[in-house]
User: Fold this.
Amino acid sequence: MKDLTKEDYLNGQVLLIDKPLEWSSFQAVNKLKWAIRKKFSLKKFKIGHAGTLDPLATGLLIICTGKFTKKITEYQGQEKEYTGVFTLGGTTASYDLETEINETFATDHITPDLINTTTQQFIGDIEQAPPVFSALKQDGKRLYELAREGKTVVIPKRKVNVSAFDITAIDGLNVHFRITCSKGTYIRSIAHDFGKALNSGAHLTALRRTKIGDFNVDNAQDPLVFADILLGPENNR
Assistant:
């Protein structure tokens, strides 16, 4: 990456970034854009990401530069893999930790066997409603903007595909999972619906995107490290 030229970036590169916790996808793209423009004194430069990650999620972000920005739609459509944690016994309005727990439920009836068998309800083609706290638009406004204004939002369900749903560990009320799914799948919605299927509640407390198509987060780089390598730590300000 250090040896790439200005022409390389303009002609097109696919950059794999490991998005840090609490960074927006836009912030990650902006960090790379700033570093590349500074390195090569570029005024105009095309760059974009192929699939948003929430600030509370970490993991693989595909960033395309130059002419490769035309490939963004192609990469967005590829199957994705996530690992993370559902926490049972409580729900939140955002289905994750962005908002506080709004309702609690009994969990005494939940067993490891019940957790494992319930995953079968979520494999294959399923219908889910996106969270009201999401960036989807309705009447020209983001759903999370409407939700924060206290407005009632009715979101139609959409069909998505889950090709794999494995429980990798159970630690008290924390259920660790691995999910492989199609474009447009909200893992937060699966967490919420999974809690309902257990006759309890659940919300997402950790999420990491590990794969997009053949791209793996193991080959991805922290955006700050990218900038350090490209500019040198002394110039990364």
